[in-house]
Design brief:
By secondary structure, the chain is an alpha+beta fold. It has two domains: 43 residues, no CATH class; 238 residues, Creatinase/methionine aminopeptidase superfamily (Creatine Amidinohydrolase). The chain has five helices and 15 strands. The strands form five sheets. Strands 1, 2, 4 and 5 form a four-stranded antiparallel sheet that branches. Helix 2 packs across helix 3 and helix 4 packs antiparallel against helix 5. The chain is globular and about 55 Å long.
Length: 331
C-alpha cells in the first residue's frame, strides 16, 4: 500500500469541472465540492471532511507450503481465462459447499474481535490464522498483488480496504470481506459491523444494506434474468433514501475467484443471463448514504464514496436451485 499524504482544501478552490484538490482524479463537482463549505473551512484544516486515512501496512503474511493455493498465489497474476461454466458440476457444488461453510466460519470468528481500539491489521492476522486452521488459503492474498488476507472497509470505504495500522474508533462501521480457497474452489462472503456507539443514521444504513441483500437473494429464481436481482435491490435502496454502487457488482465464482458472470445490484436490462439450477454466484450490494459515485485512493485498491458519506455491504455466495436460491455461506 502506498501511504498517501492527507491534503487540505486550498485557499482558492478549483472550478466544478477541474480536477479535485484532494488528488482523487475525479472532477471537483463530483468529489469535495459539496463538503467544502465556507463555514466548515473556517474551523481549520480538513474539518470540512474528516474521513478514513491510510495507515501503515504490515508485511504480507505467510501461508505454509502444505496448503493448496490458487494459480496467482506466487505471481500475483490470475489466469486471464474466465470461461468456467456458470452451471457447476455436482463435484464443484460439493466442494463449494465446503469452502463456503469455511468462509462463513472465518467471518464469524474474525467478527467476534471487532471492537473499539483494535486495528484492521490485527483483524487481518486473526482472519489469516482462521483460514489456515481450516486448511484454506486467503483468496485475496496476492490476488492482483493485493497485500492482505481480507478486505476491511471502514465508514466511507465502499470496498477493497487494505488492513493497516488504523484502529477502529467508537462510532465506526466496518465491512469484513472474507474469501477462502479450499479444495480447489473459492467461498466468498462479507458483512458490516457496528463499532461501539454508532449514530442512528449509520445504523439505519447498515440495516438497509442487510435488507438489500435479503431482497436480492429472494429475487433469485430459475428461468428469470439476472437483472431481476438488481431491480429488487435498487427499488429498496431508493425507497430508503440510499443509493446502489454501480462500479462494482456480484460475480460468478467457483474454481475461479471471479468468473465472467456479473450480477449488477442496480437495474441493468442488459444483464439478461437467465438463472439456471446449478449456477453459483455472489450477491453483494454496496449501499451508500449519498450518491453512488466513487473514487479510488492512490493505492489503486481502496474505493471510497465520492461525497465522503458512508457505505455498507453484505454478501453471500448462492447456488441457484429448482425453486430459488440456497445460501452456501450461512455459518
Amino acid at each position: 500500500m502506498t501511504t498517501a499524504t492527507p491534503r487540505t482544501a486550498p485557499a482558492v478552490l478549483p472550478g466544478p469541472n477541474d480536477a479535485c484538490w484532494c488528488g482523487s482524479g475525479s472532477k471537483y463537482k463530483k468529489c469535495h465540492r459539496g463538503t467544502d463549505t465556507v463555514e466548515a473551512r473556517k474551523k481549520g484544516p480538513d474539518t470540512a471532511r474528516k474521513g478514513v486515512r491510510p495507515g501503515i501496512v504490515s508485511p504480507k503474511r505467510v501461508v505454509p507450503i502444505t496448503i493448496g493455493r490458487p494459480e496467482y498465489a506466487d505471481s500475483g497474476r490470475p489466469s486471464r481465462s474466465r470461461n468456467e461454466s456458470d452451471v457447476k458440476s455436482p463435484d464443484v457444488i460439493a466442494r463449494m459447499r465446503r469452502a463456503c461453510q469455511a468462509a462463513a466460519q472465518v467471518l464469524v470468528e474474525t467478527a467476534q474481535h471487532v471492537r473499539v481500539g483494535i486495528t484492521t491489521d490485527e483483524l487481518d492476522a486473526i482472519a489469516h490464522e482462521a483460514y489456515l486452521k481450516r486448511g484454506g488459503y486467503p483468496s485475496t492474498l496476492n490476488y492482483h498483488r493485493f497485500p492482505k488476507s481480507l478486505c476491511t472497509s471502514v465508514n466511507e470505504v465502499i470496498c477493497h480496504g487494505i488492513p493497516d495500522s488504523r484502529a477502529l474508533e467508537d462510532g465506526d462501521i466496518v465491512n469484513l470481506d472474507i474469501t477462502i480457497y479450499l479444495d480447489g474452489v473459492h467461498g466468498d462472503c462479507s458483512a458490516t459491523y457496528l463499532v461501539g456507539n454508532v449514530e442512528p443514521q449509520h445504523q439505519k444504513l447498515v440495516q438497509v444494506a442487510k435488507e438489500c441483500l435479503d431482497i436480492g437473494i429472494a429475487a433469485v429464481k430459475p428461468g428469470r434474468p439476472i437483472s431481476d436481482i438488481g431491480r429488487a435491490v435498487e427499488a429498496h435502496a431508493v425507497k430508503n433514501g440510499t443509493s446502489v454502487v454501480r462500479a462494482y457488482c456480484g460475480h460468478g465464482i467457483g474454481e475461479t475467484f471471479h468468473t465472467a458472470l456479473q450480477v449488477p445490484h442496480y437495474y441493468e436490462p442488459e444483464a439478461d443471463t437467465i438463472m439456471q439450477p446449478g449456477m453459483i454466484f455472489t450477491v453483494e450490494p454496496m449501499i451508500n448514504q449519498g450518491h453512488w459515485d466513487h473514487r479510488t485512493w492512490n493505492d489503486e485498491w481502496t474505493v471510497v464514496t465520492a461525497d465522503g458519506l458512508r457505505s455498507a455491504q453484505f454478501e453471500h455466495t448462492l447456488l441457484v436451485t429448482d425453486t430459488g436460491a440456497e445460501i452456501l455461506t450461512l455459518p
